[in-house]
Structure formats: structure tokens, C-alpha cells
Amino acid sequence: MSLALFLGGALAALLATPGVRLDPVGVLADPYLRSVVLFTLEQASLSTLLSVAGALPLALALHRTRFAGRGLLLRLFLLPQALPVLVGALAIIAVWGRNGIMSNGLAGLGLPRLDVYGLPGILIAHVFFNLPLATRLMVAALDAVPAESWRLAGQLAFPPATTFRVIEWPAIRRALPGAASLVFMLCATSFTLVLTLGGGPAATTLEVAIYQALRYDFDPGRAVVLALVQVVLTGLVLALLLRLNTAPANGFSLGRRPVRHDGPSLPVRTAAIVILSLGGGFVLSPFAAVVARGLAADLPRLLGEAAVQDAALTSLLVATAAATLALALSTALLLAVYAPRATAGSATAHSRARLLDHAGGLVLVVPPVVIGAGWFLALRQVADVFAAAPVVVVAINAVMAMPFVLRILGPALATSAARHDRLAESLGLYGLARLRHVEWPAVRGPLGLAFAFALALSLGDLGAAALFGSENFTTLPLLLLNRMGSYRTADAAGLALILGVSCLALMLCAERAFAPRENVA
Amino acid sequence: MSAAAPPALVFDRVTFAYQGAVMRFDLAVPAGEWLAIIGPSGAGKSTLLDLAAGFVAPDAGRIRIGDADVTTLPPSERPVSFVFQENNLFAHLTAAENVALGLAPRLRLSRAVRAKAGEALAAVGLAGFERRRPGEMSGGERQRVALARAFLRDRPLILLDEPFAALGPALRLEMLHLLQNLRARNGARPTTILMVTHQPEDARGFADRTAFVGEGQIRALGPTAAILSGADDPAVAAYLGRA
Q1: Is the pLDDT at B222 greater than 90, yes or no?
Q2: Is residue A251 less than 8 Å (CB to CB) from chain B?
Q3: Within a 10 A sphere around the Cβ of A301, how many other Cβ atoms?
Q4: Domain containing residue B130
């Protein structure tokens, strides 16, 4: 299909690049490559470990205690997902950097300032982005526990340790492989954070090395080798994790949070308050820093700058085009998979769903920088790379968003198909009429969410934009990176605020526009 | 009602508002009675049990169990055991561990506790099932384990919320007989039972009295045979399909 063609094309271009000799033994013996691979795995493992280990007490504290603002905190934990990664990196520097809030505090106490560049910075940033995600996945797993279990815990007077051992841990353990593998893949293919927070050759991941090989050293051969190593590596990791991953955290739930009957004791409540303050502070302080520093910048001047206006317009056009394309491709793919058939066997439905999962995983195996590198090398031979930049960036962003879009739309369509297939067939509902009455009501809500997600992803993307960017094609994140690179810190802070706010605003609007209308019947 | 023993359970002008509907219960269950509760869906049958167990709190009125006013007590401090329609067992614990939780909520299983759990399992016809997990048992066997735990805890009041609804007719009858036997093991003072059921026929021959709950109130209460005849109350007759 088109997706496979796009990804395959990129891979083929990588393999067919002239002047590249593939020498597996030489590759493995190369100390630079080995250190890059090791660092990629090391930082991804540590990031995953820290994110998951930190999420466990947070999820337990969130689920065990009841307080005003609990729902708000859970919603705020969605924010890092919507925040452009580059803005997040800037925010981490603002809090944890040499001149950040923490360093100032330490200096005030007569202690040395923190050095955020290198592994510590990458880990902090990865935990900032993935700790809330892991927490939400675990809270969802706890929410899926049947109400009877909480009632039994209350009735049989379980102490907290028994509740954890008998109810909470088994529920969380089921969600653990999924959460950990997702976080690991996201960290293993992380580009922007490592580019901005990594420190030299000692802290470089494969993705960043590919980018540097293409844009700085112009060494296509090395880029190809690195890209292939990345594909093999992520493929291996994904295959391994798929085997580990037994069941998705998708228990039967009425969508209502069950009431717990184990009134928390004073020590439990105190511990929860401490944990939630620490976790909430860690996740929210970077946002506060972005807002504070951004407001201190000369925003009116920035907004009046032609370069900023151009970049904003470019970003908006690219993001809208990419999100639309991602939705169109995903919907076509899903409708083909769940197309109404005369004989709908459950076995084939199952294998179709698995196929979709693999399509989504494929995009994770072949990350955007690798796709970009492939097309960069392919187009170089036939056309001006930078002239084709907008089209390629839109396409890459769309493909990047597809796994998420598929994951949001797929279950909705599958449920609707399972519920209405027979009814629609018995009523002779086909074609457009069926789309309108069966599929559309089921996906309109998820569609809005997916569109918003794709928009935010593309708006915040730096990988593809950095590879193909030029004076004529600059997106907001790329402009922000340039300002950071030329040490115009105040400008960077202002741009980060603008980018962050527009991402969140766009997501809110898109979600609203597609929200299911009240039934008038 | 004998004057000597206090009623096992009393609802004294208990009100509870749920989604706009106000429920209002007045009820006295003598110690040792088996009371069946029937009525249409959403009428408040399960809410009645939840109020007694402390899973929901009344807006007004008092609830007493034996001598004690339990209105404000949390579920863990009420002398009751509860059996649900499903999910009574924890899937990763063995049958013996699931039963032992009733005696040792910290799951420190002494030899004595293990022995008692084994006896309780034997009493419900599951001797030798100690090491089985819920996944390796049938629906009826799982409910037997739940009953074993409820009776092992030896609380004066057992609340059953449609405990056999998922079982076939023959198995249901078998479970009702089992319940009857377990109750009788306490001799002169059998355990008080409140049993919500969708099948009015479950009450016949087992429950001493039957209560009909409609629209958030106990509309009729009397000897099981009389209530199930539907002769006294047109609402009961309509529910039973005898109108």
C-alpha cells in the first residue's frame, strides 16, 4: 500500500545509494558506531526505567486518594504529549540548566550549579515527557479493575500492602509491558531532545548521528549505515517487546471510575501528598518556566518579524496538510480492513487487526529521520532536495502521525463493525448510507482527537524539518532551533511560548469541532 | 419476632437519593431470617444491600446491625459478608488463598488458617480444590468458593446480590440447597441472610420471607408463599406476570 511504498522507497533509496559499500563486519568493528548504538540503548533503557518506576507511586497515589483537582492533574498530565518536543527541551533547560531555577536555588545554598547537557539532561527530558504517559496508562489499568474488587478490599479490611499485592499490582503488571515498550521505543527513536540536550559524540543517538552525517559532514555512506543499523535495532527491540507484550490493557470497564472503599490512613495520605507534589512539580515546573520566560521576551516585536510570520504560516500549512493526509490515508486503510463483507468471520477480523498493529509498528521501526534520510538521498539524484522540501516534510509528518491515528480510529471502527455489521447487512445498508449511519457516528469523536494529535505532532516536528529546512523553508521549531543556536535566548523563549500555546490551542479547537453533537431526538 | 434477640438488621427511615430518584427504606429483619428481595431492575434492590454493607451512605435515617448503630461505619467495620454475582475471587490467588483472605487480610497464612480454609472449601463440596485458581474453575465452583469465604468469616449477616444469576436452573437449585445447609450448620441460630434475586422462584421453599422492592421502596413484605402468589398487591402481581 501507499504507506509501505513510502517507507519502502526510503529504504530502497538508502540501499541503492551509490558509493556505499555495506560491510557488516566493518560496521560492527567501528568504535564510533558502537558507542552511538550503546548510548542509544543505554539512554532508552534508563529513561524507560525511570519513567516507569516514577509512574508507579504516582499512579498509586492518584488512585488511592481523593482530592479536588485530581481530575485536573490527570488532564495536565496530558500536556507533555501535546507540547512540541523542542519547547519541552527549552523548558527543561530553563528549569534544570546552568542558569535554571534549580541551579539558582542550589547556588543560593552555596552548592554547585547543575550541568544538564549529556545523559542527565536527556534522561530528565525523557522522563518529563514519558512519566505522565506511563502514569496515565497505569491509572487506566487501575480504573479497569472491577468494582467488586474494591468492595471486597473494603469489606475484608485489606491493609494497604494486601490491596497492593492482591489488586493494584496485578492490574498494573498487566499494563506494564505495553507502557514500558511504548516508552522505550519513543526514547530509542528520540531525535530533538538528544540533538538539543546531548553533549557531543559521547551523548549521541543513532537518529542524531544520521542527521549530522547528512547535514554537517555530508557523508551519505555513514548516514546509510547508521539508518540501517537504526532500522535493524528498533526492529529487533520491537519484535522482542511484541513477544513480551501479552495482553493490551483493555479490561472491561463501564467508563466510570469505581469507588474505592479502603479509606486511606494518615501515613498513606501523607505519602500520597508528598508523591503528588513532587511528581506534579516535576511535570508542571517546565510549563511554568516556558510561560514565565516567554512572557519576559519582547513578544510584540517577535510577532511583527517577517521571519517569524513566515515560519508560523509555513508551520500551519504543513501541519494542516500533514494532518489531513494522515487522516485520509488512515481512514482509507481502516475502511479497507473493516470493509463490510458478506461473510465477516471473527478469525479474519482478528488477523486484520494484527496487520494494522504491524503497520503502526513499522512506522516506529523506520523513524522519521530515517525516512527523511532515504528520501533526501533519493531526491538528491533527480531534483533539488530543498525545492521538494515542503512536499516531503508533509508526507513524512503524515506517516509519522499514522500509528497514532490508526490507534485512535481503529478500535472505534472495530467496535462499530462488530456491533452493527449484521444489523446493517440485514437492513441492506450499503455504501454511503452505511458510512453515514454506521461508521461516521462511531468515528467522528475519535476523528477530531486524531486530527488534533496529528496537528500537534506535525507542528512540533523537528526531525524532518531540520533535514530539509533552508532559508526558503523554515518552520517554527526550526526557527526556534536557529535562535537557540545563535544564543538569542530571549527570542527562543518567546518563540517557545508562541509555539507551545498555538499547539495547545489548535488541539483544543480541533477536539471541540469534532465533539459529538447532542442527539436532538 | 422474639422479644429477646434484637433484629439482625434495621433500616430506620433511611433515605438515599440516586440520580434524581429518592429511595426510602424501612425494614426490620429478625435474627436468623432468610429474606429474599425481588423486584424490577433499577427499583433499588442492590442499593438496599449496598446501604447495609456501607458501600453507599444514606442521606438520612439510621441503620442498625444487631445492637450496634452502623450508619457511619466504613464497610470494613460492619459485621457483614457480601457475595456478588461475579468477580468475588482474585484471579491470581488460589481458592484456598481467596478463602483465607476472609480470616487473614494480610495474607500471612498460618497452618491454622490454611486448615480452616481447607475445611471451608470441603463444606461447599470443593475438597481438594485448595490450589486451583479461579480460571481453572467453573462459574458454579467460583461461587462456592465465595460462599465458603462468606461463611468462614462467621459474621451474623450475609448479603447476597444475585449470587446465582449466571448459573443454570439445576445448578441454581443445588446452590440454594448448599446455602440452606451452610446456614443450618450454626444450629439454633442460623445466619441471617438477605438475598437479592431476579428469579422469584429462587425464594420459594428457601426464604422465610420475601420483600418486593418497587420504585425505591419496600412495597410488600410477607411470607414467601403469600408474596409469590401475588394475591395481596397488584404491583407484585404485575411484576410476576400474574395480573
Answers
A1: yes
A2: no
A3: 11
A4: 89-154
State whether A167 and B76 contact (CB < 8 Å). Answer: no
Distance CA(A313)–CA(A326), nearest Å, equals 20
Q: Does the beta-carbon distance from B82 to A261 stay under 8 Å?
A: no
User: Do B40 and B75 fall within a single domain?
Assistant: yes
Q: How many CA atoms does the CB half-sphere of B169 hold within 13 Å?
A: 2
Q: What is the ipTM of this complex?
A: 0.86
Domain locations in chain A as residue ranges: 34-296, 298-521
> Which tens digit of pLDDT belongs to each residue from A215-267?
888 877 788 888 888 888 888 877 776 676 544 433 333 334 567 887 677 88
Q: How many angstroms separate the CA of residue B159 from the nearest CA in chain A? A: 12
CA angle B149, B154, B155 (to 5 degrees): 105
Measured between CB atoms, does A168 come within 8 Å of chain B?
A: no
Contacting residues of A for B91, CB less than 8 Å apart: 170
- Quote the CA–CA distance of B22 and A88 in Å, as a whole number: 51
Q: What is the 3-state secondary structure (H, E, C) of A120-134?
A: HHHHHHHHHHHHHHH
The residue to which cell 518579524 is assigned: A305
**CATH architecture of the domain with residue range A34-296:** Orthogonal Bundle (1.10)
Instruction: Give the domain A298-521 fold.
Output: MetI-like fold (1.10.3720)
| Span A73-97, pLDDT tens digits | 887 887 787 788 889 999 999 899 8
